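Hi all, long-time lurker, first post. I run a small reading group and we've been trying to get comfortable going from sequence to structure in the token notation. Rather than ask abstract questions, I figured I'd post a concrete chain and ask someone more experienced to write out its structure so we can walk through it together at our next meeting. Sequence below, copied exactly:
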Amino acid sequence: MKGVISDSLKKKIEQLHAQQKNWAEVDGRAAEETRAKQSAEQAARLKKKAAEEAARKREDVRDLFERRFKVLAEALPWITQPSGKSVTLDSYECTRPEQKKAVEICRDFATMLLDRVITKKDSAAGILLVGKCGTGKTHLAKGILAELRAARMPGFFIPAIELFDLYTPDFSSDLSISRTKLRELIAGVSCLVIDDVGADSWSVARRSRLQQVIDMRIEAGLPTVVTSNMDPLRSREDAGERLSSRFSGSLYPIVCTWEDRREAKSLRRRNAQDIFRGGKC
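-- Answer (accepted) --
Happy to help. Here is the structure in token form:
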């Protein structure tokens, strides 16, 4: 009869609808998989791009510090820089746990400096190596510079007395660069090591100069390493309240309380015959 659909035709229509539904679901899953794949590929590209940009930034920072070091070293050729070969953190003799801990701190300081500079997190945090003569303070400081040199982040070594002389009018007039440029370079090297800051450094003028140098480096977000045979954190009368505050706020103290190595190996502790006769009577 007209207008009546047979059961077989109904069944075929239902099958066709089911098939269309299945096709739609398949198409939907395929589209979803395509979108997921495209999203993953985009994320991978963005991750690769971010990694490449981070690597370029690290190289740019290294190049900048190498250029600054080169210009400063050429301007101050009489100040010998550590070669980074013989005096290293690995060559520092450790006989006590405190010494091993000191080496570990110095190594962490040097190894992570580039990351701290880039992230600007504690990038100006330096180290104060304090203790009596012969405990290896300068060795540790030079060991830090050896690590930085190997990482293409060369820092600059300068004895305290040389640093103070640089700022005297008669001395600075003989430099190949201006005093302004000199200050910029001292403030801008990756790490400045000021060696042997002693009691004679606490005159008003020198105290002011030392504070100025540390302040410049803090402002630049770069660390300073200071070695001293006295503790300016405790000797506030000598160092001055403001300088002691600067040291305390920007320099992590490593107190070298162990034995004087030079004294332990001094000639006066040996028998004269062993020295001059080779032990022969």
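A couple of things your group might point at:
The chain has twelve helices and five strands.
Residues 7-75 form the longest helix (69 residues).
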